[in-house]
Amino acid sequence: MADLHDYTSLHVGGPAKNFVEVSTEPEIIAAIEAAGDSPVLIIGGGSNVLISDSGFEGTVIHIANAECESEVDACSGATLTIGAGENWDNFVTTTISRGYAGLETLSGIPGTVGAAPIQNIGAYGHEVSEFITRVRTYDRQVKAIKTFTNSECEFEYRNSIFKRTPGRYIVLSVQFQLRQGEISSPITYVELANKLSIAVGEKASVVETRKAVMALRGAKGMLLNPDDKDSWSAGSFFTNPIVSADIATTLPEGAPKWPTSDGRVKTSAAWLIEHSGIDKGRAHGGARISTKHVLALTNSGSATAEELIELAREVRASVQEKFGITLEPEVNLVGVSL
């Protein structure tokens, strides 16, 4: 029986009733079929999950397949098909070293390739959905392979069809389309542009952009470090809220506001948390707000899942009381609830 705290970046989680390690697509499918109709939890890097102290009463499948297929065209760039178990940042590093551009602003995000489309991971002005062409999955409902085109993935901000139908589609591999080049797309994120000493809208070296992103993430405690408990987190615990234009007008001057295509407005969860009275370093038992970034809930070394959830509730209630906005978790909650 595996203790799941050994497989998560929060170092929290009880035992798994059944635990299976798989490293190939046939092994993944066999493990899923062997589980039958019982609950299944897929774990890759374990970096975006908070698992109950009582563990998981089902089958946990730890995916480590990292197959890679590539097709390169001088005009269209590279089409890369990557196994779901490949480490995300290792993949990003490899694309840059091979002369491909696009993923540099997504550097340093923990987890695996298979988790990327589920969450539609994003950072510094870009989302992974911009580069995905196909997602190959196993459909547990019909017990067959199902491949999704980009549009069929129904990507939204930190959301997808895979996240909206939890447990049904198991990601096996992801196909990306990347352009060849040494220069980034226009840098649209102010913080990153400042770090690169360029104006918003200008371009930069792909290599230098990655270095800047890694430095920014490191300063916020958003790079996993086994020796730094301030990085024992699941990354951003809450998503940035998207609110109506009317609600956006009630926010104080200085609150970040980014208009969306549907007429709503996205604002900053971190700004709301800080301005609701929650300070960095605030603790509840062994759970603590990161001393570097209020959006990360961390394990100071002895935290339980319940302590982390209680701290998350405190943060959520503080923002709700101050601004009337309910924060939604970005982290996958297993056996616990806000």
What can you tell me about this protein's structure?
- It is a single chain.
- This protein has helices at residues 25-35, 88-97, 115-119, 161-164, 190-196, 206-219, 245-250, 269-274, 305-323, and strands at 16-22, 40-43, 49-51, 56-63, 68-73, 77-83, 100-101, 122-123, 126-127, 132-139, 144-149, 169-180, 233-236, 242-243, 258-259, 265-266, 283-284, 287-289, 296-299, 332-334.
- With 338 residues, it is of the alpha+beta class.
- The protein folds into three domains: 4-63, Uridine Diphospho-n-acetylenolpyruvylglucosamine Reductase, domain 2 (2-Layer Sandwich); 68-185, Uridine Diphospho-n-acetylenolpyruvylglucosamine Reductase, domain 3 (2-Layer Sandwich); 229-334, Alpha-Beta Complex (Uridine Diphospho-n-acetylenolpyruvylglucosamine Reductase, domain 1).
- The longest helix is centred in the last third of the chain and has 19 residues, at 305-323.
- One of its GO terms (molecular function) is UDP-N-acetylmuramate dehydrogenase activity.
- Its EC number is 1.3.1.98.
Radius of gyration: 20 Å
The SSE order reads EHEEEEEHEHEEEEHEHHEEHEEHEEEHE
| SSE class | alpha+beta
User: What percentage of amino acids are in beta strands?
Assistant: 25-35%
| Bulk shape | globular
What is the multimeric organization of the chains shown?
single chain
Mean pLDDT: 95
The number of distinct helices, counting runs of at least 4 residues, comes to: 9
